[in-house]
Amino acid sequence: MRAWFEHPLLAPLRAMAQPGSEPVWTGELYNMKLALHPAQFYAQGALVLLAVLYLVASLLGRWRNTRRVAPFAAVLMHAMQGEFAQVGASADAPPGLVWNGASDALLFCTGRRGVDTLHADFALARRQDPLYMVGSLLFDVFAMPTVPTALGDRLTLVLTLPAAEKRDGGVFAVVHKSALQRVHSARYDMRFARVADGEGVSAARGLNEQLAFASEAGDLTDRWLGEIGARGDAQRRRTGLVDALNASALPWFESLLWTDQPASRSDAESGVPSGCVERIELTLRLPTSRADAEACMPLVTAVLDMADALHLSATGRDRCMRLRPETVASLRRTRDEVDAAMREALGREEKDEQELARDAERRRAQKEKFDMLSPAEQARRKEVERKRALRKQQGQGSKMRRR
């Protein structure tokens, strides 16, 4: 283990490291004699070495994150240039990712019929922070949380649909069964949908058995996945979504959501109205090779085709994704009830805050009035309050004894 330190070229360093060695530097500073012995700085040397190693590991982590994103980003940007008028944060600059630190990147696209904007969010592991990586690994091993802290690299495509178009609204999702519990517990909008993951349920609509779906209404499921059995084959051929989900992108697929509700409960509780933004969200485990990235492109294309189908149905030019009137009425009634309950909860919170503010103001006024009294009067009032509290305590004790 110490053979490297005994090399002849390191003899001067070994001599300086001996406790009784001659100092490598002597001098005076403000009439104080100083001498530098390297043997006295083992701790400082170890800290410098650790800092250098941490810096090198951080730089390697940044480089690795960049390399992992590059294949899919290149394939996605090439594909989106044929779909959107603008790919990238600026129309005047070449397409590229916008990085937020070393573990988050974004690709922005806009300028397409049926889609206001597309955000491709790359959420990578924090490899630039070795301490966090080690800590999260130890936490997952020993604490065994329901949702691991180290989830790996994810890509989420968020298609924001035009707000001017009138759609029926709703929540529908197709989720890989390995991620079903995490997605269902993490998202507020998934509480509107009922999960169907029983045996044979997915196969009845042509889906792979590794996938489950959640829907707010049966009519929504029929529009997205077709009806059960042969009756839904025509709808499945028309949308092409089921074939894309079962194809080469399945190993990387995690979830597909169509929703008009906030993703987090905090957004809902802050007063964000229901149905304000309809969007389609596709989440994949990030492919790390160009071949795997190209295998995922048919699914991305199918999701864009679904956005087109929603656009055509919303503008009255097609009925492919149009819901039945009773389904639309049920969805609207649910949203009205949720909005009313949310407004009632917010009203109670505001009322409680106002009551607390009034109590604080009343206590402040009483304290100011008390401070203006003479010391004798203050002492007298304190004694009165003490006796009153004592009588109250004695009365409570007698009631307990009678019981």
Automatic annotation (TrEMBL):
InterPro entries: CCDC47 (IPR012879). GO terms for cellular component: endoplasmic reticulum; membrane. Residues 344-371, 378-387 have a biased composition (Basic and acidic residues). GO terms for biological process: endoplasmic reticulum calcium ion homeostasis. It is found in: Membrane. Pfam families: CCDC47. It comes from the Eukaryota. This is DUF1682 domain-containing protein. It comes from Malassezia vespertilionis.
